[in-house]
């Protein structure tokens, strides 16, 4: 039985820490802007900004790897549709109708879906420590979301918005699993650039449909600042780090780091909203961290 992690895998695990922090911030910003900027407008301009920020770094590898993109064109198209178009647009849409508490709970299902889909459709085997880690980290997520009172789980009121958000979680699970099919020699920055380039026309069509239905944005300095944040940190930096992390440590281990989102959500609430850390926060965060450590172990 193999023991230990290589330096590349350890670096991959470290790269997976910032993405859930930036995505937790995206969740907070998305909720705050839902009354000012319609979801498809938010999604389109987020990725336009991301593409402009990424293009100076991505242009050369995009040109160099163009034959590889064409050879894997259907895979690149699928990644762009589920990871860039579908996931973010559906999340922003679902957050119009569902509470943050329900959204966090549904988001925590992503690692479970990655495990299940990987085992069911892609022949991925699960070792004992991955199962233990999944259970621990998911219990930690629920502890934080339910404020330590597990009886609240039965009182959650799921709605159409919850089903919409859950469908986004399904799309992200497939996005993570499909990343593994990309050959390692393809530059990840260029790959991210080509995915955004493919996605923007689809997002523009959704944006036009939203405008035809009468949904228009109400721009303000706060809205512009929020759009700048989500266009750079959760879009460019987080996606690149996550893509590299998946390539180095695998889809299952990478997916487990999504459970850090409620941990960072607590920290952001303390810093920006003046909330206080409660005992259930500490219990939940501990369970999440132990769960992630368990999945990083080899064998079992």
UniProtKB/TrEMBL annotation:
InterPro entries, per the entry: AA-Vitamin_Transporters, EamA_dom, EmrE-like
Alphabetically ordered keywords of this record: Membrane, Transmembrane, Transmembrane helix
EamA domain residues: 11-145, 161-295
Parts of the chain that traverse the membrane: 12-32, 44-63, 75-98, 104-122, 129-146, 189-208, 223-242, 254-273, 279-296
Membrane protein topology class: Multi-pass membrane protein
GO CC terms of this entry: membrane
Keyword Membrane listed: yes
Keyword Transmembrane helix assigned: yes
Compartments reported by the entry: Membrane
Organism superkingdom: Bacteria
Major subcellular site: membrane
Family: Belongs to the EamA transporter family.
Protein name in the entry: Permease of the drug/metabolite transporter (DMT) superfamily
Organism: Magnetospirillum fulvum
Highest classification ranks of the organism: Bacteria, Pseudomonadati, Pseudomonadota, Alphaproteobacteria, Rhodospirillales
């Amino acid at each position: 039985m193999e023991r230990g992690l290589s330096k590349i895998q350890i670096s991959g695990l470290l790269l997976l820490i910032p993405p859930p922090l930036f995505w937790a911030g995206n969740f907070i910003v998305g909720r705050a802007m839902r009354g000012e900027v319609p979801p498809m407008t938010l999604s389109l301009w987020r990725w336009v900004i991301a593409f402009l920020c990424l293009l100076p770094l991505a242009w050369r590898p995009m040109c160099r790897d163009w034959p590889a993109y064409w050879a894997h064109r259907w895979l690149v198209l699928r990644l762009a549709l589920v990871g860039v178009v579908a996931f973010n647009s559906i999340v922003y849409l679902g957050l119009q109708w569902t509470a943050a508490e329900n959204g966090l709970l549904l988001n925590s299902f992503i690692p479970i879906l990655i495990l299940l889909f990987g085992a069911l459709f892609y022949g991925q085997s699960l070792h004992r420590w991955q199962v233990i880690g999944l259970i621990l980290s998911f219990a930690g997520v629920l502890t934080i979301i339910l404020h330590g009172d597990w009886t609240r789980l039965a009182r959650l009121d799921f709605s159409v918005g919850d089903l919409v958000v859950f469908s986004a979680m399904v799309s992200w699970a497939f996005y993570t699993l499909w990343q593994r099919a990309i050959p390692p020699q393809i530059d990840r920055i260029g790959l991210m650039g080509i995915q955004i380039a493919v996605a923007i026309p689809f997002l523009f069509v959704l944006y036009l449909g939203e405008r035809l239905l009468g949904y228009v944005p109400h721009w303000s300095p706060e809205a512009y600042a929020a759009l700048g944040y989500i266009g750079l940190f959760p879009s460019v930096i987080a996606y690149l780090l996550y893509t590299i992390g998946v390539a180095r440590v695998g889809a299952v281990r990478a997916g487990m780091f999504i459970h850090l989102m409620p941990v960072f959500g607590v920290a952001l609430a303390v810093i920006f909203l003046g909330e206080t850390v409660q005992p259930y926060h500490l219990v939940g965060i501990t369970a999440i961290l132990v769960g992630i450590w368990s999945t990083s172990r080899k064998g079992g």
